[in-house]
Design goal:
Elements lengths: L1 H17 L3 E6 L7 E5 L4 E7 L7 E5 L2 E3 L9 E6 L10 E6 L2 E13 L7 E7 L4 E6 L8 E5 L2 E2 L8 E4 L3 E6 L4 H4 L1 E9 L4 E12 L7 H21 L1 H9 L1
Parallel strand pairs: 2-8, 9-16
Antiparallel strand pairs: 1-3, 3-6, 4-5, 4-7, 7-8, 10-14, 11-12, 11-15, 13-14, 15-16
């Protein structure tokens, strides 16, 4: 019996030593759940190594798409550099596998922290009784709360019948039936990122102008058509008299 158990143990040990495996390491180091935390414009260095015997070739994939590698960066060990890290890299999965055995693989996922990109001042001229919509980029990881101000004071949404919305991509501030005394001023949207430790702001200088009476084009066209039709009917009704006059 001891001989049998010894043989089984030796077999299992042999299998564990000869099993193919792929290991992916990262700088910054891989954290909890296989995530690599980084920031915008930083660099992430990935390395992949294989325990397979022979000239086993490695492949890299980003979100399922094959990454092109030079010939000297494929056998046994392969390196990949992500620089500069962008917003589009947030959530991206980098997978390394054996070319001839896709089951043998390893992967990491990037988690990119970034704040909204807010800057500059837009100038708007809007007529009284018209509508207003101000938009700010609110994309951030982790998500942030957008705060609106008017003339340096936190905006009271109930005064001026404002509506503030944020779908995680764009924050909007809207108002209808503008009035100069209620809506004119310097607006700003501000976002504070707890991770980045930064505050970004975009401003809007809103000037409410007098309402301009618009030319009633449709009504005028309709009036011209009526006048022309009336003139033609009048001409047709008098055609016999005009014809007799011309014959004389």
């Amino acid at each position: 019996m001891r001989v049998i158990w010894t043989a089984i143990f030796a077999y299992l040990l042999h299998c564990s030593c000869t099993a193919e495996a792929v290991t992916v390491e990262s700088l910054p180091a891989v954290g909890y759940g296989g995530f690599v935390q980084t920031k915008l414009n930083h660099t992430v260095s990935l390395s992949c190594s294989s325990t397979a015997a022979g000239e086993e070739e490695l492949q890299w994939f980003r979100n399922g798409l094959l990454v092109s590698l030079p010939e000297g960066n494929r056998l046994h060990q392969s390196r990949l550099c992500v620089y500069p890290v962008s917003r589009e890299d947030n959530g991206a999965i980098f997978l390394c596998q054996l070319k001839n055995n896709a089951v043998v693989n390893g992967s990491v996922q990037l988690e990119v922290t970034y704040a909204p990109e807010l800057s500059g001042t837009d100038e708007l001229f809007l007529e009284e009784e018209s509508d207003m919509t101000l938009s700010c980029d609110s994309r951030a990881n982790p998500p942030v709360t957008m705060v609106w101000h008017r003339d340096g004071q936190a905006l009271d949404l109930s005064v001026g019948r404002y509506v503030a919305t944020d779908d995680g991509v764009t924050a909007r501030l809207s108002a209808t039936t503008l009035k100069r005394e209620l809506h004119e001023g310097l607006y700003s949207c501000t976002a504070s990122s707890p991770v980045e430790g930064t505050t970004t702001t975009k401003s809007f200088q809103v000037t409410v102008t007098d309402k301009v009476m618009k030319f009633p084009r449709d009504a005028m066209i309709a009036g011209i058509v009526v006048v022309v039709c009336t003139a033609m009917l009048a001409l047709l009704s008098r055609w016999d008299r005009i014809f007799k006059c011309c014959k004389k």
